Amino acid sequence: MDEPETHLDGLDVPGRHARIGWKAWGSHRGLRAVLASVVGAAVATVFGVVALWPTGEGIASATASAAEIGLATERFTATVQEIRDGPCSYSSDDNPVRCRQVMVALDEGPARGSVVALPEFDLSYAISVPPVTLDQKVILGYEPSTDFYFYADTDRRTPLVWLSALFAVFVVALGRWRGAFALVGMGGTLAVLVAFLAPSVLDGNDPLLVAVVAASAIAFVSMYLAHGFNPITTVALAGTLSSLGLTLAFSWAFFELANFTGLASEEALVLPFIAGGLDVASLILGGAVIGALGALDDVAVTQAALVAELHYRNPGLRVRQLVSSGIRVGREHIASTVNTLLLAYVGAGIPLLLFFAVSNQSLAMVANSELIAVELVRTLCGSLGLVAAVPVTTILAALVTSSQDRRL
């Protein structure tokens, strides 16, 4: 007899949902409680999004404040037309200094088509001289009050678009419709962060509350889009939300114990000037919750799919056996994911790590620095949530897959 067709994700096996159907939820009191909690979380998330939806006043006020202190300027694309190296305008016989003069043609803005000279760059400070070439696209900053243009950055949008397209092709080629829906879920995540989280915080809403609501919304949208609306995804979602709550509890407790101010970075010092009353420490804590979500749903989905596959291959396995096997595999997953979480946080701060390496301080003193300590607390609290996600999700998935058999 031919073996039933299977797919890599462990969820799309023909006849699988006949074995793991929604009717299992009605036959077990504990599963009904889980379903009720997921529905309750969905209702609370919708209510939170509606109640905290940004009005736009906060971001408008913050933008105006940023413009007043010179942080917000207009941006236009330009093309490099000419590069000349020679004596600076302030050079003298006693103090000869060489500068680079760059001429660009404006591709956008009120003076589109005009050629303007950028402020000269002192070649003595090579690190401050932009690496531009003829016909290169660059981004200019523009101050309307003084009609002043300055070099802001290289225009790298084209390679970013190509990379995004390549990524989408690979995901869809391997994941097919599931991959396409995962991309839609990624777009939904970006939409929640850009259209809801940031503007809502700037409106003066509590950053931690906004982050929790945003994380819950992201979990619902991304998981159901990527993995389908079925009982196993619901189990994974329940495990994710439960573990996220534990991560929040640990993070909040240890952020308080560590007395984090949230003002250890340059961005955190500037934010209170453009968004008055912003609780930066709460914002950093909210960021820890958002940061842990990605790893949590990965672990939860993997555990739920694993248990479903085990039950499909051997429907005779009891709940205890499914849980035992699932947790054994989960230990390996946790071992690698915890290290991944650490590397993700550390990788973003390699320059800072180098700075501390030459500071001639002990490892304990470096870890005590708020910049480093925040990342340590994020990593460890996020890892606690990951560890909790394995047994929680595995047990729920085992109950769902075996509830029809009634063998414990």
Describe the protein in words.
With 408 residues, this protein is of the alpha+beta class. Helix content is 63%, strand content 10%. Strands 1, 2, 3, 4, 5 and 6 form a six-stranded antiparallel sheet that branches. The radius of gyration is 27 Å and the shape is elongated.
Secondary-structure blueprint:
Elements: H1 16-19, H2 23-26, H3 29-52, H4 57-68, E1 74-87, E2 98-106, E3 115-117, E4 121-122, E5 137-143, E6 148-154, H5 157-202, H6 207-227, H7 231-258, H8 266-274, H9 280-313, H10 319-347, H11 350-357, H12 363-368, H13 370-402
Antiparallel strand pairs: 1-2, 1-5, 2-3, 2-4, 5-6
Helix pairs in contact: 3-6, 3-7, 4-5, 5-6, 6-7, 6-9, 7-9, 7-13, 9-10, 9-13, 10-13
Write out key terms for the chains shown:
single chain, 408 residues, alpha+beta, six-stranded antiparallel β-sheet, 13 helices
Using the alpha-carbon principal axes, give the shape. elongated
Strand percent estimate: 5-15%
Q: Uncertain segments of ≥5 residues (pLDDT<50)? A: 1-19
H and E order: HHHHEEEEEEHHHHHHHHH
